[in-house]
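[Automated response] Your request has been received and processed.

Submitted sequence:
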Amino acid sequence: MNRLSLAFCVVVGISLLGSLSWASRAYVTDSLRITLRTGPSVENKIIGILNSGDAVEVSNTQDDWSYVRLSQSDEGEKEGWVLSRYLMDREPWILQTGNLKEENKALRERMEILETRLGEATRKEQEISKELEKTSQNREEIKRDYERLREGAEGYLKLKAVHKAAQAELETARQEIRRLTEEQEALQSSQMNRWFATGALVLLCGLLIGVLFGRQQRRRRSLYT
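Generated structure:
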């Protein structure tokens, strides 16, 4: 018997603890002010007024009444009974409207930031387009300068080739002049040698003729004497 009593007490205690710890979120219905009472009856004392949109925690229900706790209050934490039909699970329209206003404000601020960034991106794009156009113009100028330099280089190379050919011809002419000069000098030296040889030969012949003529004279003189 004692064991049964103890078991019954444990079950009741667990049930009471479960009922006390259980709580769900609810809201007071739209466009309404409801009374918070000390008990689940209109005969109980009113201890507060709940406005539409107030969030409460429902910890117990009894018939058409709910025991709620209001934590967000200027007067501190309030607890009491309210009619269950004046509670709902969804957020009231006034709260949803406030949330939408906050979201709309955040979206407007985000849009302003995006518009500012878009303006900066557009400005940078215009600057890049100008730089690209300037770069294209510079590239065309460089291309024209390159063409002029290439043409000048081709002309220079042609002139250099002509100059090289002229130098080669001049060197050939110089070599030919040197060869002719050497031949002329050799010819002049040969002619001088021939002149010296001829003179020597003539002188030798004269001497021989003189010797022979002198001998003949001496022979004639010896015959006459």
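Summary generated for your ticket: The domain at 16-90 is CATH 2.30.30.40 (SH3 type barrels.). The longest strand covers residues 55-62.
If you did not submit this request, please reply to this message.
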